[in-house]
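Notes from hallway chat w/ T.B., transcribed later so I don't forget. T.B. wanted the structure written out for a chain they're using in a teaching module, and asked if we could keep both sequence and structure tokens in one place. Agreed to drop them here.
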Amino acid sequence: MEGDLGAKERRPRAVFMAFGTKGDVYPIAALATAFACDQQHYQVVLITHLAHQSLSAHLACKNVTYMPISSAPVLAAHQHDNISGSEGEIPQSHVDQISFSLRKKIIQKEHRQECLSALEGVFGDDPSMEGDFIAINFFALEGWHLAELFQVECVITAPYLVPYSAPSSFERQFRQELPFLYKYFQEAPANTVCWKDIAHWMWPLFMDNWGSWRSDCLNLSPVPFTDPVTNLPLWHMRAQSPLLLFYLFWNQLLREKGCLLTKGVTMTRYGFSKEIVEFPGYWPSNVYICGFWFLPMEWQFSCHRCREIFRPNPYRSVISMDRLCANHAALQNFLMDSSRPCLPVFVGLNSIGSMGFLRNPQAFLMVLEAVVESTEYKFVLFSSGYKPLDATIQSIAGASSKSAVLERAVCHEDSTFLFNDRLFCFSGTIPYSWLFPRCAVAVHHGGSGSTAAALHAGIPQVVCPFLLDQFYWAERLCWLGVAPEPLQRQHLIPDDNDISSINQAAGALSRAIKMALSPEVKAQAANIAHRISSEDGIGEALKALKEKVIPPFNDGT
């Protein structure tokens, strides 16, 4: 980035800060680009991991400045690379001996400092102006504290349910350690921050060593909502209750439950429906419902050639093979293979591998092979570029005794055929909105993006959840009737290669796919797809921002 953003001609500034995996970050980036196109008088910035730098070209096309943070999207316990102490306090030769918790603290310290530096580059020493705001996801809570520092509004933008819940002892400990602040929240007037807000999502702001960072680095009070001198609650200053806006679907719910904002408080966007997600009594009343924030089609191709071909009409059914790249042509040919008239089963776990859950890729592939051998299904496996899985795929392909399979296995960079050409393995990317309508069922981890795409495509789902809100979505899809009961982890990726474990997992997966393909489940999936087909999540989110955050724009004409 050239120059200091704060030194440019003063315009209102919108900072979108999102951390986590692609599923956590990309929907926020899509909202940032849509906002930049809609509000061209704004200076728009996206702050996220360096690992998501593939977004930078897409963002630049929409006049969004990309500011990378060096921390990794995911730190699995086995990872040791790119971890350094400041000023040489931890020699590289000793890194492998450092405990996981200590390494997390080092990374956290560096991460927070980079976030502070990034926002100093945006806001500088200039006073905040009306319309400035910071929009964060739930993995970017640094943004909440930094919004307080720079005296701008904070907006929570969530492409998922709140991914964590407070420890069972949180309220008791809070009441004991901060009795006056507990009373402050319990006695809060209507429409101001109250205990419901704290219990629903704000409780992490009072944990994770935020206090020392706030006081030592930001010169703020160690505890939010307290005076920096007396440490007592700000009885004379009541912040309005955060407006919650989720991203999922059926935005008819709670359109009128918003409230106006004041400097330094939060507007949060969720997006689900009363028909999909019940509105529990413990949620704050001011929840705003949007709709799924689907990514621009051109972001979802792993090759430039196919991106340009699909751009004019992304939902076209078939494109001439000689126009597609070799990898996507091979996938399209596999989907259209008339020798096997049944539609394929999609399998994709996205970032589950990089998060350390796919410890035995060989066992995972053995499960798929067993299902292939015992059924008529054919499969499309997206490896998400997870190197251990891709390496295992190539190892199995190379060990094949069938020369025809071997010849096909190595002919394309991102695609490999296994198991008598009934498993198509793909390490690139292609839009789910194009792929899923050409599949019979989607087997996935329960991420909100995969869930949304399959619901929108109207196909049944088989879900194997691993963490956070994935368990919620797995149960909810079953309750809705678009998926069977969730798979247990060992029924998709067993830890062991023994015959018993593989056969048990293959049997469970086969039964789940059979149940998903029942007429009742297929009909319900199609029904829900019809009901959500007209949703415009990005449009609803922009509408909320314009109504609740952005002041009327006067261009001087």
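Follow-up for T.B.: The longest helix spans residues 100-123. Might be a good example for the class.
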